[in-house]
Amino acid sequence: VQLQASGGGLVQPGGSLRLSCAASISMSSLNSMNWYRRAPGKQRELVAILAITGFTDYVDSVRGRFTISRDNAENMLYLQMNNLKPEDTAIYYCNARRATITGLQDYWGHGTQVTVSS
Q: Fewest C-beta in 10 Å: which of 40, 59, 63, 117?
């Protein structure tokens, strides 16, 4: 599984960005697709999850501001980020998770940098 994230950039506080992630396979074969981020000097953090059932969840710090969604026909995952704050500055990674006979398998794309600054 190959994942390609894009859409990062520099934005002022209060602004918006939409991240995209293109998957090389049908997302219906994946148990979940997720967004993680790694801020400078911090550990990687799970930001948003989207299960194959359509269930979504968010880390508290972004709940109400970020929305995860997908386009099954295009095999695309999105993260709409509104009202961005400086603490959202991080490298954002697209993740896909699939159950296999040997356990859960994680796939990662290259990150896309999001910088929130005035």
A: 40
Element (H, E) at 93: strand 90-100
The number of C-alpha atoms within 13 Å of 89 and in the hemisphere containing its C-beta is 12
CA-CA-CA-CA dihedral for 78, 82, 84, 87, to nearest 10: -50
Number of continuous H segments (helices) and E segments (strands) in the chain: 0, 11
Task: Let me know: does 23 contact 1? Beta carbons within 8 Å.
Answer: yes
Q: What is the pLDDT along the chain (118 residues), one digit of tens a residue?
A: 899 999 999 999 999 999 999 998 888 888 999 999 999 999 999 999 999 999 999 999 999 999 999 998 999 999 999 999 999 999 999 999 999 899 999 999 899 999 999 9
